[in-house]
Amino acid sequence: MPRPTEQRIVLLLKVLIWMVGLGPVAWLIYGWFQGNLGVNPIEKVILVQGRWTLVFLLAAMAVTPIRRLTGWNRVVQLRRLVGLFAFFHASLHFLAYAGLDQFFEWPYIVEDVIERPYITAGFTAFVLLLPLAVTSTRGWIRRLGKRWQRLHRLAYVAAALGVLHFFWKVKADTFWPLVSALLLAGLFGIRVWHRVRQARQPRRGTSPPVAA
Amino acid sequence: MIIRSKPKSQPVSSEITKEADYVSRRRFIAGITAAGVGAAMIPAVRRDPESSAPLQDEPNSFDEITSYNNFYEFGLGKEDPAANAHSMVTSPWTVTVDGLCSNPGEYHLEDFMKPSALEDRVYRLRCVEAWSMVIPWQGFPLADVVRRAEPTGSARYVAFETLWDPAQMPERRWRPRNGWPYREGLRLDEAQHPLALLVTGLYGKTLPNQNGAPLRLAVPWKYGFKSIKSIVRMTFTEEMPATTWSATTPGEYGFFANVNPQVSHPRWSQARERRIGELRRRETLMFNGYADEVASLYDGLDLARWF
């Protein structure tokens, strides 16, 4: 039976995620019209949206490891919201690039996507997130069954491409790309480690014991 | 005798717009954004026919020029130099001239500047990162300094060095391949070109630290990183000197670094640029619009190879 306090914690965390998710957008909109995004506001909008996309992607990826490390299963209830905010920021990041930076001049955008590896990587990551966002509803989870989980492992590919995109973009300051790469590798490592451990320990109660 | 001639592409100083006229610019941009984004939903043609119209070269505001800088010794973010560069001591300042020249020396900055008359020059600055500004500098021709140093017959290049003093410069995250200090260089004929300017002032004021006080270079037909800041040394050499960016990432930044819309940076296009303060990108011009003055320096040089 779920205890009411736990439900309240989940609710509280959801409110927090909404605030963290919408906060940067509100700040950017306010800053844009106040003129305090610096002298290259378009660049600032794109940078901030890109940063928050990665933060939410890594956070979504951290849900399962956190559940395993802490044993607090209800953290899983937060994953969809976190993942959708990653998609939300990725969409705004792309829109800011295509609309504000390139003024929807599609020939330039297509050229960028095809010819500039960092944009190819970032755009691919964004495209991979699309089906994940679409199939995030209860109905799709039920309909896809086991395949849903396999499909949603694409989030790892998207995150890896996102980090690569970040790495290839910077001119000299590889500090934050490196940090995000290490975080992603760490989260992936926890998963692999868990798998290996599970494979070593025969699961109890899943198969009938073989009599000697 | 000092001949003060102005190149054709350079606006006269009376064209410099008063600072007050810029105050409303930001609000103007915010206002047109809504309309602009709406209009942009209609796909635009690739080559804007308007781009062949005469250059609109309104100088950027003092605030824009002094708050968005690349000066990695003071941090890697665009706003870091403005926040951190105050720790640099620019007075007293010594400039050393050495290498293959008959008249080497160490000069106090005041003595170094004294023989030349200061001029106003409004130059476009095109950063290799595809943004640009228009900047009203004050300075004196680099050619004056070259002449006074009397380079010997074997001198073919001038190497420049930025101050490097970790105690005054907080950057800890980046290590260029050849180490600090920041180094740049020009071919001797480039250094003698009348457009090459040693800068000591901005908007009629003393050059702010984040812009390379007290002495920097402005070579407006080259990407911004060639216009080295806070110069402490000039060395005449026979061999092409190692420069910080071309040594650190040789596949991305060359020695010449002439502005060239036809030669893409390996990671992004150089065909267009964002003029700071403008919403839409504009076409980048060959040699940053100074082709009439400088193109002949590169006759017979394969600009795609010697980028």
Please tell me about this protein's structure.
The complex is a heterodimer of chains A (212) and B (307). Chain A is mainly α and 212 residues long. Chain A has one domain. Chain A has 9 helices and no strands. In chain A, helix 1 packs parallel to helix 3 (79-101). Chain B has 307 residues and is of the alpha+beta class. The radius of gyration of chain B is 19 Å and the shape is globular. At the A-B interface, helix 2, helix 3 and helix 4 of A face helix 1 and helix 2 of B.
Mean pLDDT of chain A: 91
Give the N-terminus to C-terminus distance of chain B in angstroms.
36 Å
- Number of domain units of chain B: 1
Outline the biggest β-sheet of chain A: none
> Which sequence of SSEs, written as H and E, runs from N to C of chain A?
HHHHHHHHH
Please bin the fraction of helical residues of chain B. 10-25%
Question: In angstroms, what is the radius of gyration of chain B?
Answer: 19 Å
Q: Tally the beta strands of chain B.
A: 12
Strand percentage of chain A lies at: under 5%
Number of domains of chain A: 1
Query: Rg of chain A, please?
Result: 20 Å
Helix and strand pattern of chain B:
HHHEEHEEHEEHEEEEHEEH
**Which segments of chain B are poorly predicted (pLDDT under 50) over 5 or more consecutive residues?**
17-54
Would you tell me the structural class of the helices and strands of chain B?
alpha+beta
> Which oligomeric state applies?
heterodimer
- Low-pLDDT stretches of chain A are none
The main β sheet of chain B shows up as: 7 strands, mixed
Count helical runs of chain A. Answer: 9
Query: pLDDT average of chain B, as an integer?
Result: 86
Q: Report, as a whole number of angstroms, the end-to-end distance of chain A.
A: 39 Å
